[in-house]
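A favour, since you know our structure tokens better than I do. Could you add the entry underneath, on a fresh line?
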Amino acid sequence: MADPALRLRQICLLARDLEWTSGMLTTAFDAPVVFRDPRMAAGGHLTNTHIRLGDTFLETVCPTDLAWQRSTTQTRLLERNGDCGYMAIVQVPDVAVASRSMAVQGSGRGIVSGDWNVCSGAPGDGLAGVESGRYVLGEPLPKRSGSVSGVNVQFDPRDFGTLAEIQENWPGHDQFPANKGTYYPAGNTWQKDVDARPHGGVTTGFAAVEIAPRQGDPAEVCQRWVDGLGAGCSLDTSRPATLRLAGGQTMRFVQPGTDGRTGVVGVDLWAAPGAQKKFDFIFLCGVKWTLVDHPGD
């Protein structure tokens, strides 16, 4: 039985044109942009948008002109692959435990980057007065009464098939149900719209992600995720190189196709209940998006 907190919570895409790509995605998935991270923009190299799909999030990041001038990791990836899937983000129940176990997988390269964030208030109150800092491997998420907090930790794509991130946020859905717990990467105001429109007419969120590792055997990379995420995550014995998360979600690992694309190459979306499917599958931003029925529908 998967820990209910252990879920695929966000997919990140990399694109040359942020506004065109975000507009295309909001139209295709009938979902709004809920956040643009001002701190990312202030860094000078990337801008972004977050689109809410139920209580999961689709982020698009775009290099700035300065990033192109300096030939950053993101611009080199775009030159090699074009618009593409960039990162898979899994929510974990205990970032202190999961960060240590993820860090020793594969080559044991450890953390690529990580940050903590703490802000007074509750889910939906915004981020005024947010404090942040660099995350130290193995530190627990700070949890103070009357505050919201979050930690994100990233790991090398050579070990996990794509840039990998784990997240713990507090207080979560156990205290704020109905899709309204804290989720820092998408800001802290998106919760206000959940009651009026829990999801659009296309999808309620992520069902699966498909990852084609650039290096390593898919089954081996899958096992690294299983070992890194730990208890509550399991291999799907009926399907090769597939792991199970909570809520029926899965992560699939496959060989690169004939197009040579690696990293996040496919995403399954739960079809919105009671609505006619808008498509069976489409290709957007170098990723195949497939609508699937939820087992409970």
In short: The first strand starts at residue 7 and ends at 14. The radius of gyration is 18 Å.
